[in-house]
């Protein structure tokens, strides 16, 4: 953060933590196709309710919910094999149709121009994330944290706490961007203020959330305002380990 940013009365975040799927990249429709293919592979239909339940989940959590819906016994749950199958499906889909969310590029450039370090924080596994970074631009981020690199993915707080550790900033002085109920829950549980741009599923309001319809038109004043909201509510949020989204 520069002296000029402090001098004009704005207190900007010391780091910005970006979710990827549905926030920066319009991948949710492609994940939906892959999840439908997986459900069909297990002999069931991917209902809207099941898709909503899996949205934004880590791969293990998403697979578990589909296994449960298909009544697959524990002995028949091949997490490693089915995850590898899913990876191949989504990479093929992403190769053909990977798009930015509205305003995402300008938002990244806004934060970069303010010299605020950015971390990519995603439930997506490392193998898939590394492919997406070719689109996002690796050099934009000082670090990346994936769902398969922490004890438990979103909605647990571990992934955001790890991101703050990697950038060396107290988590309450960061600002996160999220789109899903699962991701937003993780920010609240971790005690990081967040700007939430719901992409496909409504997100329950929480004291540390600032809602926007899109990243288009984002300004530094918007970042500062979201930080003020988080500061006022942060003490209560940091006492919460998790909540049911």
From TrEMBL:
Record protein name field: HAD family phosphatase
Q: Which PANTHER family match?
A: 2-DEOXYGLUCOSE-6-PHOSPHATE PHOSPHATASE 2 (PTHR18901), PSEUDOURIDINE-5'-PHOSPHATASE (PTHR18901:SF38)
Highest taxon in the source lineage? Bacteria
User: Matching InterPro entries, A to Z?
Assistant: HAD-like_sf (IPR036412), HAD-SF_hydro_IA (IPR006439), HAD_sf (IPR023214), PGP-like_dom2 (IPR023198)
Organism lineage string: Bacteria, Bacillati, Actinomycetota, Actinomycetes, Mycobacteriales
């Amino acid at each position: 953060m520069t002296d000029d940013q402090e001098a004009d009365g704005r207190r900007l975040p010391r780091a910005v933590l970006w979710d990827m799927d549905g926030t920066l990249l319009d991948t949710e429709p492609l994940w939906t196709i892959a999840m439908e293919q997986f459900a069909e592979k297990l002999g069931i239909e991917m209902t809207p309710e099941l898709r909503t339940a899996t949205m934004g989940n880590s791969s293990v959590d998403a697979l578990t919910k589909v296994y449960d819906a298909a009544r697959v016994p524990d002995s028949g749950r091949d997490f490693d094999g089915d995850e590898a199958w899913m990876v191949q499906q989504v990479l093929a889909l992403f190769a053909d149709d990977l798009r930015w969310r509205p305003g995402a590029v300008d938002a990244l450039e806004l934060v970069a121009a303010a010299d605020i370090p950015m971390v990519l924080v995603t439930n997506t596994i490392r193998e898939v994330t590394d492919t997406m970074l070719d689109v996002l631009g690796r050099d934009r981020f000082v670090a990346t944290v994936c769902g398969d690199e922490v004890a438990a993915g979103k909605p647990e707080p571990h992934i955001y706490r790890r991101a703050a550790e990697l950038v060396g900033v107290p988590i309450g002085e960061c600002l996160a961007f999220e789109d899903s109920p699962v991701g937003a829950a993780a920010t609240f549980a971790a005690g990081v203020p967040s700007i939430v741009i719901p992409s496909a599923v409504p997100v329950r309001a929480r004291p540390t959330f600032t809602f926007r319809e899109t990243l288009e038109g984002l300004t530094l004043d918007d970042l500062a305002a979201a930080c003020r909201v988080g500061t006022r509510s942060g003490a209560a949020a940091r006492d919460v380990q998790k909540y049911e989204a």
